[in-house]
Amino acid sequence: MMIDTINLDDDFQIISPLWTGFALNKEYAGSGALLVELAQMQAGMPIVLNSGEHWVKKSKLDALLAHAKLGKASFTLTLPDSAVHTVMWDYTDTPISGQPLLRETYQSNDSNMINVQLKFLTV
Predict the structure, then answer these.
(1) How far apart, in Å, are the Cα atoms of 66 and each of 23, 24, 43, 53, 77?
(2) Among 33, 48, 85, 117, which is least packed, fewest CB within 10 Å?
(3) What single-letter DSSP state applies at residue 73?
(4) Distance CA 98, CA 94 (A)
(5) Residue 122 in contact with residue 47, Cβ under 8 Å?
C-alpha cells in the first residue's frame, strides 16, 4: 500500500462507510411544497483505513503526520488490491490517529503503534 510516496504494509483494513454517491438537498417553498434536488456526487467518497492490532512504526506515523501537514489538495492512494484513488486527507475529522503498543515515557522512531486510523476523501 502506498500513500503518495510513503510505503506502508498491506495490513490495513478498509473500514470505509457505505457510500451511495448521491447528495440530496431539500427545502420547502413558500407555498409549503417540498423541493428536492438529487445529484450524483463526482467525488467525496470516504476511505478509512485501520491497522487494528498490526504494528506501525512511529517513524511511519510521523511521516504520515508530516504529509498531512503539507495540506495537499490531492495525492495518490494505492490500496493493497492495486486500486488507485486520488484523495486528500479528511480534515473534517482527525485524519490520522493511533495508540502506542506499549506505555513508554519517551517514544522512539522504533516504537510500535496500533489502531492507526487514516481518513481520506476522494477528489
Answers:
(1) 32, 35, 25, 23, 16
(2) 33
(3) S
(4) 11
(5) yes
| Greatest extent of the chain over all pairs of C-alpha atoms, in Å | 65
> What cell numbers appear for 58 in the block?
512511529
Q: Rounded to whole angstroms, how far apart are CA atoms 76 and 71?
A: 14
Cell numbers for 121: 476523501
pLDDT of residue 40: 86
Q: Enumerate residues 6+ apart whose C-beta is below 8 A from 60.
A: 6, 8
pTM higher than 0.90 = no
Nine cell digits for residue 93: 475529522
Which residue type does 22 have? F
> What mean pLDDT is predicted for residues 24-33?
93
**DSSP per position, 19-47:** ---EEEEEEE-TTS-EEEEEEE-SS--EE
Give yes or no for a contact between 58 and 112, defined as CB atoms under 8 angstroms apart.
Answer: yes
